[in-house]
Amino acid sequence: MSSKSNSKQDGLAAKIQAFRMAADWIPGIKIIQRTEPWENLFICSQGKERYQLSESFFQHLPSHEFRRLIFDPESPDTCLLGPSDADDNGRPSKKFYVRRDRLKDQTEMELISVCPILPDSPGIESYSLIQIIPIDLQSWAAPKTSRIARELSFQKRNYIKFRQLSDRNKEVLSLIGRCKKAEEIGEELFIGVNTVNSHKKRIKELLETNDTWELIQYGLAFDLI
């Protein structure tokens, strides 16, 4: 093993040890893993308690089980918050997600960050720090955050359907979302009522719904309203 690899391993060991010592003081769940090849290296005591895992079981957890039990960025209820940050070389350096986690009869909101903890180099393993932090907000903010998460989740589940719409379909959908009648839509877009109704019929076919409220959800989730 090269001195460079030894240095990197020593740096990783130091970071893990630091998290072992400080993890209980830092809010949320902390996880360190190697992504290529896959290996779970560390989970804090809050994480072991939350997911009812021993450290040994966690370290041998395969990637598909990790995604099922702990964190899957592709889950419909886990949504990326905008583009990820980039380092000086333009490589993604940190990603933030918001997740709705349904627990029994309540829904918990979580903020999840995924951050490389050692520089990427060709031929050298990639390591990430995952932090899962419950969002405990003031009462006025919680409904707003929950609504945003619902819209992001709806957008993620229905993106393929939505992108089938033409630009004119989207204009009509936007006005449907504002509760405009066919006559009003026609006047605003300078088209006839029959043309408006044809667009409405096509929109419902492509989105596979006859539910007006669901059409409004599309308008909200895809920023048409």
Key phrases:
Sig_transdc_resp-reg_C-effctor; Arc Repressor Mutant, subunit A; 225 residues; alpha+beta; 7-stranded antiparallel sheet; 9 helices; 23% strand; Helix-turn-helix transcriptional regulator; Beta-Lactamase; Tscrpt_reg_LuxR_C; elongated; 46% helix; WH-like_DNA-bd_sf
What report would you give on this structure?
This protein has 225 residues and is of the alpha+beta class. It folds into two domains: 3-138, Beta-Lactamase (2-Layer Sandwich); 164-221, Winged helix-like DNA-binding domain superfamily/Winged helix DNA-binding domain (Arc Repressor Mutant, subunit A, Orthogonal Bundle). Helices cover 46% and strands 23% of the residues. The chain is built from nine helices and seven strands. Strands 1, 2, 3, 4, 5, 6 and 7 form a seven-stranded antiparallel beta sheet that branches. Helix 5 (142-162) packs across helix 9, helix 6 (167-177) packs across helix 8 (193-207) and helix 7 (182-189) packs across helix 8. The longest helix has 21 residues, at 142-162. The N and C termini lie far apart (58 Å).
The name of the CATH architecture of the largest domain is: 2-Layer Sandwich
Radius of gyration: 23 Å
Distance between the termini: 58 Å
Strand content: 15-25%
Helix count from the secondary structure assignment: 9
Question: Roughly what is the average pLDDT, rounded to an integer?
Answer: 80
Shape: elongated
Per DSSP E runs of 2 or more residues, the count of β-strands stands at: 7
Q: Give helix and strand order, one letter per element, not per position.
A: HEEHHHEEEEEHHHHH
